[in-house]
Here is the input.
Amino acid sequence: MTIETDQRGMCPHCKTPNRFEGVQYIERRAGKSERILDFPYFELIDGLEDEIDLLSSCRCTQCGKIILFLEKQMIYPIGAPRTSAPKEVPEKIATDFNEACLVEPLSKKASAALARRCLQNMLHDQNISKDNLSEEIDEAMTRLPTHLSEAIDAIRNIGNFAAHPIKSEDTGKIIDVEDGETEWILDVIEQLFDFYYVQPAATRAKRGALNEKLNSAGKPPVK
Here is the structure.
């Protein structure tokens, strides 16, 4: 989701979809009348004055916090407007994902490298281990539903690493990526988190609750 004034999007502060509103700044300086500006006013230490018209901002209508942009680059808060890895995800995997989201606005290549390492560690956690990530994706595709199989397969076209397979020890290597490719890797990882960790945990919780009721009724538990 994008972040624009008078539009809806994912707030990078509260991590919930909300509408964003414009922010106006009131300029108050001694001996001068007040002015309403759409961007902050800066008075430099040496007395020179400068209006930084490349700055813009908007406010989340849910949490009330401000998001700042320099041209179209979000500079506050730092990090992509994504939710953190779910609590069900193992810490090592979640850490790489969260860091990939944090650096994405600053370096797509660095974010993609962290995301690839996150993906490979997740596949290893599913007992999928081959000579390189491309072969591990092949194995994962045989175990995933069609929509996830097609999504993870597309990752191999990112950075052209299908033509030059990244070996296990080089997964975090920095390679060039095109616009939108890093976002795609992170999108797919979020879907895999849900499939591998969130849904199974929810099923176990429901089964546990059902077995408690069956036990109270003197009935055998479900397997």
